[in-house]
Structure formats: structure tokens, C-alpha cells
Amino acid sequence: MASLAHDHNFWIVGGAALVCILGSCLTMLLSRRLVGSGGLRKQFQTSLSALIGGMTIWSTHFIAMLAYQPGVAHGFATTLTVVSLGIAVGGNAIAKMMLAYGTGHIRTLGGGAVFGCTIAVMHYVGMTAYELPGYIIWSFSHVLLSVVLGAVLGALAYRSVIEGKSNHASLFATVLMVASICAMHFTGMAAISLNLNPLVFVSPQLMSDGVLATVVACVTTIILFIGFVGFSVELTTEREAVAAVQRSNLHDALTGLPNRLFLNQILEDLDDQRRGSGNPHVAVFTLDLDRFQEVNDIHGNRIGDAVLVEVASRLKEVCAPTHFVARTGGDEFAAVFLGFESNEKASSFAQRMQDAISRNIILADAALSVGVTIGVATTLSDETALDEVLQKADMAKYRAKSDVAQSICFFDADLDRAALDRQHLTHDLRQALPKQEFELNYQVQIGTSSGDIAGFEALLRWNHPIRGRVSPEVFIPLAEETGLIRSIGHWVLHEACLEAANWEKPYSIAVNVAPQQLVQPEFVAELDGCLTQSGLSPHRLEIEVTEATLIDDKARALEVMYQIKKMGVRIAMDDFGKGYSSLATLRAFPFDKIKVDRSFVSNLHLDHQRAAIVRSTLLLGDALKMPILAEGVESEAEYAFLRRERCHYVQGYLFGKPQSREEIHPLVSGVPKVRAS
User: Fold this and answer.
1) Most CB atoms closer than 10 Å: which of 89, 314, 434, 642?
2) Strand, coil or helix: what is 346?
3) What letter does residue 171 receive in the DSSP assignment?
4) What is the domain count for the chain?
């Protein structure tokens, strides 16, 4: 009976274990990588991990067989030895393809079981190649146990590769792979007993231990060399790819300058350095090109891009090692000056940047000229974090843009406090819609001939969680400047239609539309969607537009207004009289109603000029067959004048302040008359 304890050279067994561990580690590292890769890289990793895994199993087995010393002449059949190597590599290839391309349990338990069974088949084919004067007797129970151990531990190894979330997953998978190989091999060896018989012929053509040792040594060297080189190539390729992605993420693709994300990282690093190295002062500059939009409009985006590249090049030329420059978006740049001693130094650097940018740029046989506005903030007088210094430089830049007398401005706390408050309000305004801080109020519109309600105007209100109710005169212009008016205006239109559709009485609802809303391509579709979703009849909706809405793109505005009219929605001209070409606008655009601005209604019974303007407007409305609505009626005298002059509709505090949906419920549920009080 063979004895595992006494018939093995444990130095050689240790060598087999070392090869098994190194090969398994490489195999599992590559296996873990191929799970998340794709394309040719996945094919390469699948092939490489299959080759290394198969040769690891084979080398471990035959090194362990060389450690087995039965004490009689023995050898290895060449053909079966080679076949066992093919089985090891081929079976591993199948298992790795299941791991790489399979799903669910097929890739984990299935692939791992194939891996374990491959070890078993390779082992027993390799044992069949082992010849000695006698017979090998197998213990079926041990053989079955060896196959089960190999398959189970192999499945667990593959599952650890797929499902492991920590950095130790590859290590645990390697341990399981080593356990699978060793458990299979040594349980399989325990399954044999030898019945020696000197009459059994042993062919002299068998490979001796020395020849096999040479072959195994070569194979082991090859697999370890291929494995380490392949893994090194993988790591190098991955590092280069990560570096390329990081560079792409941190640099502007057009100019090659660092981007805003990189700038933020630099400012954070400088904050850390300042805390640990004597607190060197930092100046931050924000730059905004002047007349750049003209270049784009006249010469096209290609020339505009070339201008940005040239500006970036000039900025880099004026920068010293203590300077950092970035493109933060569009035609905006930023620079950082570390370790300066005075505002004069910062001012001198800002002037150098301005001089460099302001020189003519020769492109496409044309001399192009762009200027620059620069805001500056430093840590000389304020030791705040550098991201706040950057914000202050922005505020100084905005002040410089509004002051034609200077193009370089340093931050001034007193002058820029309003700008800071505006920035905070802008930030809060961006959050107002998702945080549901907006609500609609409704103000009645009265027919003067009957005194009955003719409709309501929807008015937007912002309930700020800290500031309280913010005036529309404050946040509406801010929303228009930032472009937020598009999403806010759509919400107002949608909510107003839903509310009016639920009224028992079919009063009309008037909704103001901002210039940016009316000319955007999807406005008509959004309007149609609001009507469809709410079920509101189009003739009950009245869109109010100001003359300023129509000035920028008259052709587009006229096209949109005719589409709105075709839907059955009415259009009113709001704030009539404030524009400079109102009569021409009335003639050119298809309005259904004119709203006289409140500035002409206030005390019109006491002011002959205002009275004359309102009378003229009423005569104009009669001539054009357009009803007139007077806004801002607050006294009985004003109302009496408008009735006497046959103004069609009125609106104002005399008849009620804007009210919430709950407060107007009695009005829209019954048939009340609203009289002046």
C-alpha cells in the first residue's frame, strides 16, 4: 500500500505548492479583470488566464508526481502526459469563457465546476500516464470525493471572483483555487494503492523523472514568465488608460488647459499647503473675453475655437512657475498666483494677461480683436478658503463688466455684497422648483359693463424657506437672465391649466410667457401638452406677452404666435405703452387683447397726460376691435373713469389682491359678482 506520508519528497511537494500558489494568483487576478473588460481585451485575458490556469494545474500535478517515490522503476507515457496538458488548458479555456461571457450561475457555479472537473480529468489522465512494474488499484470513494472537492472549491473560487466586492476578493479566490487543486490532487493520490508485480513489463521508452523534471521546469518557467509579463502589460495598459481618462477629465479638450474640475483640485491642494507652510498668499483671477460672441457670429465656430486656442497659448506664455491657468468654460478662464507679496504684484500680472489677450489675433487673413474683463480676489485681507476667493473674483469680474471705465476689478466687500447676495439667491432659485417652493396666486379680472368676473390672471409666488416671500420683481429678472425661466415658466403654464380645468365655471386664465419661453423650439408642443394633460379648452387660456418678448426675433415670435392662435389660444399684449414701438407691434402681431400698464392707470383721473394716453389706447382698441384691460386699479375714482370711458376689463387691488387656489375656490364654484369696495 502506498503511503502519502512516507512516499513523498516534501521539498519537491513544497515546490509544487509554490508553483500552484503563484500560478493561481496570476490566474485569479486575470480572471477578475476579464469580468469587467470587453472586446479584444476580454479575448486576450480569457486566453491568457486559460493558458496560465491550465499549465498551473498540469505543472502542480507533475511536480507533485515527481515528489512521489514508490521505490521501484517507473516512468511517464509521453502521449498521455501531453494529452493531460491539453486537457488542462482546454478545460480551463471552457471555464474561463463561461466566466467571461456567461450569466448568472452559468458563469459562477457552472464555470467553477468545469474548472474543478478539469483538474480531476487532467489528474486521472496524468495518473494513467504513470507506469511502474505492477498495478494501480483505485478507491472509488476517494476518487469520487476528489472530484467533488475539486468541483465545489472551484465553483466557490469563481463565485468569489465574480461577487467579491472588496480588494481581498482576488486573494480569497486564489486560496480557493489552490485548495481546489491540492484537495483534488492529494485526495486522488490517497485513492491509489500499488500492487507491485515484477512480471509487469515497463517500456524503456517512458520519460524518466529527469526528463519530466526538465519538461516541467521549462513549462513552469514559461507560464510564470508569460503570466507576469501579461499581468504587467495589463497593469501598464490600465494605468495608461486611467491616466488618459484622468487627463481628459481634468483638461479642456480644445485648448489643452486644465478645466474647472482641475482648478478646484488645485485650490484644495493650495489650501492644504497654506495651512502647513507659512500661509503663502494666493491671488485668484477670473477672466471673461469681450466681443467673443461677435467673432463666433461673424466668422463661425471654427474661427471662434481658433481664437480660444490662441488666447490659451498667450495666457500660458505670461505664466511663471508660480502661476496656474485654466479654462473654466465657454470664453471664461481663471488664473492662480501663489506666493505674491502685494496687490501691486497681482495687478501687474492681471495687466500682463490683459495686454497679451488684447493684441490682434491673425486668423484666416483677418485681424481679430477680443478684449478681456478680469476680476481679482486675494488672501491678503481675507483668509477664507480659496473656493470662496474664486467666488469673490467672479463677483469682481461681474462688477468690471458692468463698469465701462475699468476692465480689471479687485474684490471689494462693500461694493460686491449685493453681488454675493445675488449669487446666493440664484443658487436658491435653482433649487426652488424641485423643492416645491413656488405657488400660484390668482387675481380676478372684471368686466366693467356687468361687474362680473371675466377671468383670472395666474401670478407666480416664491416662498423662500429663509427669506420668506421673494418679490417677483426680484426673482423673475434673475430667472430670465439665468435661463431658469424656461423650466419655471413651463411649470406655471402646466399648473395654471390644471387649476382652471377644475373650476366649475369656465372662466378664462391668463398666463405670462417670458421671451425665452416663446422663442424656444419646443414651446408650442409644451403648450399643447399642457392643454391635453389638463383637459382645458384652448379658448379659456390667454397667453400674455410683452413687447420685449417680440423684439429679438420677430420672425420666430410671429411664427409661434400664429401657431398658438391656430390652436385656439388667445394672446394679449401686456404692459402696453412701455415699449418704444407699440403701434407697429400691434399692427404686425395677431393680438386678441391689450393690457394697459398700471403706470398709466395710477391716479389717471388726476393726471391729464395719463388720462389722455388711456383714452387714446381705448380709441385704438375700438379701431382694431381689440378689448382693453386696465391693470392696477386701486381706487373707486380710477374705476369710475375707466367705466365712463368704456374700458372693457379691469384688474387691481380694488377688486381683490392675488389669492391662493383655496381662497378663490368660492369664486370659481359659484357665480359671484365682485364689486369695488
Assistant:
1) 642
2) helix
3) H
4) 3
Is residue 373 a contact partner of residue 340, using CB atoms and an 8 Å limit? no
End-to-end CA distance of the chain: 118
Q: Same domain, yes or no, for 374 and 453? A: no
Mention every residue, 6+ apart, whose C-beta is less than 8 A from residue 50.
89, 92, 93, 95, 96, 97
State if pTM tops 0.70. no
pLDDT digits over 94-135, tens only? 887 887 777 766 666 777 788 788 888 888 888 877 777 777
User: Is 590 within a domain?
Assistant: yes
Q: Give the tens place of pLDDT for each residue, 157-186.
A: 777 766 655 556 667 777 887 887 788 777
CA distance 563 to 523: 10
188/140 Cα distance (integer angstroms): 10
CA 381/CA 642 separation, integer angstroms: 60
CB-based contact 184:126 (threshold 8 Å): no
Q: Which residues of 513-532 are buried (b: 16+ CB within 10 A; e: fewer)?
A: bbbbbbbbeebbebbeebbe
Residue 45, C-alpha cell as written in the block: 485575458
Instruction: Report whether pLDDT(311) > 60.
Output: yes
The set of catalytic residues is 631
Closest CA to 652 of 439, 440, 450, 459: 459
- Asked whether residue 533 is domain-assigned, the answer is yes
Cα separations in angstroms, 13 against 57, 130, 179, 478: 14, 17, 14, 79
Name the domain boundary from 175, 207, 241.
241
The residues, ordered by sequence, that sit 6+ positions from 60 with a Cβ below 8 Å of its Cβ are: 16, 17, 19, 20, 23, 181, 182, 185
Grid cell at residue 563: 401657431
Please write the tens of the pLDDT for every residue from 244-290.
666 667 788 888 888 888 888 888 888 877 766 666 788 999 999 98
Confidence of residue 1 (pLDDT cuts 50, 70, 90): very low
Return the pLDDT at 464.
Answer: 94
Inter-residue contact 674 to 656 (CB < 8 Å) = yes
Does residue 542 contact residue 592 with C-beta atoms inside 8 Å? yes
> From CA 380, how far away is CA 280, in angstroms rounded?
9
Q: Are residues 230 and 294 in the same domain?
A: no
Instruction: Examine residue 122 and state whether it is found in any structural domain, yes or no.
Output: yes
Residues 232 and 110 in one domain: yes
Does a structural domain hold residue 675?
no
User: Distance between CA 337 and CA 28 in Å, rounded?
Assistant: 49
64-97: burial string, b at 16+ Cβ within 10 Å, e else? bbbbbeeeeebbbbeebbebbbebbbebbbbbbb
Task: Give, as one character, the DSSP assignment of residue 473.
Answer: H
Three-class SS of residue 75? strand
210 burial level (CB within 10 Å; 0-12, 13-18, 19+): exposed
Query: Is residue 430 classed exposed, middle or buried when 0-12, 13-18 and 19+ CB atoms within 10 A define those classes?
Result: middle
359 in the same domain as 222: no
CB-based contact 45:26 (threshold 8 Å): no
Helices 111-128, 78-101: axis angle to 10 degrees equals 180
Cβ neighbours of 677 (radius 10 Å): 7
Average pLDDT in the chain: 82
Segment 458-494, tens digit of pLDDT: 999 999 999 999 999 999 988 988 889 999 999 999 9
